């Protein structure tokens, strides 16, 4: 009778130990998944920040290039308007008459 009682107690202890080990494994798996999810969220946030910084840098370079192009265009337009319609050419005096070779450039 005592042996059977001890056997039942040992079996109950073994069942409780098995249940506890399975619960510990489940909790460990939950902690691992939570840590993995947290790591993934942090990595995703880092990737998003890096993408935003790269986009900001590219936009800044584009705006600088566009501003430089606008300045070059405005200076070129000013230069073109200043030189438009000038009379260029050469002339020479022969004997009693004036011979002119005039070229009018309209650009």
Automatic annotation (TrEMBL):
UniProt KW keywords: Signal
Pfam family, one: IQ
Molecular-function GO terms, alphabetical: calmodulin binding
First and last residue of the signal peptide: 1-25
InterPro entries for this protein: IQ_motif_EF-hand-BS, IQCF
Annotated protein name in UniProt: IQ motif containing F6
Protein source organism: Chlorocebus sabaeus
Gene giving rise to this polypeptide: IQCF6
């Amino acid at each position: 009778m005592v042996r059977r009682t001890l056997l039942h107690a040992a079996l109950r202890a073994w069942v409780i130990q098995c249940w506890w080990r399975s619960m510990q494994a489940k909790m460990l798996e939950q902690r691992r998944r939570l840590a993995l999810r947290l790591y993934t969220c942090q990595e995703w946030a880092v990737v998003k920040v890096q993408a935003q910084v790269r986009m900001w840098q590219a936009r800044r370079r584009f705006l600088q290039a566009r501003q430089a192009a606008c300045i070059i265009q405005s200076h070129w337009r000013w230069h073109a308007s200043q030189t438009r319609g000038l009379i260029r050419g050469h002339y020479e005096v022969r004997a009693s008459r004036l011979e002119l070779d005039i070229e009018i450039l309209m650009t």
